[in-house]
């Protein structure tokens, strides 16, 4: 779940300190409404710190914890990032750590694609994404970052996932396979891909995925959004055939 969330709403940054050294951090910055989500991540991982700046809260994991805890954990379990930008950031960070580069001036210049060999390759087909052992829980985390459960003013219910298109075509086509839909992915001229479903059949699959599949549950604001969405379905005859979660344990 965590890697999917970082793919959608986190980043790994390398910056220069006042002494010319490299500061390496994985950062997730969210609205203060999602402080409980960051506190949950912090409690599970047991590393990093949470800072608040006005209405923004940040979960920050520094170089030592990345090198000694998080990255070894990902490598051991063969879990990796699936979005283009995060993969480049992760690969460069691994290169820096593996070569013990400490001075910012010693950072390599040029295209970071040359370091992608340090991490597993992306699946080359949509189907191959779906058989990644961590993919379904990755979708849960990605949904918490980039997904939406919403109701249009006309009463139409939707579930959607959105991200920049570059390098993500097969990933978004994999969503169609996971949710078993014939609905096409929308690719905008502004460089975004959007997966969105609204039929009773498709929303039945969505509810089954998030509430009846034994995956990591949604957490934070996205769980609140999901519960509100589910509660709306309870009073809508159109969705009477969907097996909704118990009202006492939505999500």
Automatic annotation (TrEMBL):
GO terms for molecular function: endonuclease activity. One of its GO terms (cellular component) is mitochondrion. Residues 3-74, 139-230 form the Homing endonuclease LAGLIDADG domain. Keywords: Mitochondrion. It comes from the Eukaryota. InterPro entries: Homing_endonucl, LAGLIDADG_dom, LAGLIDADG_Endonuclease. Mitochondrial DNA endonuclease involved in intron homing. This is Homing endonuclease LAGLIDADG domain-containing protein. It comes from Tremella fuciformis.
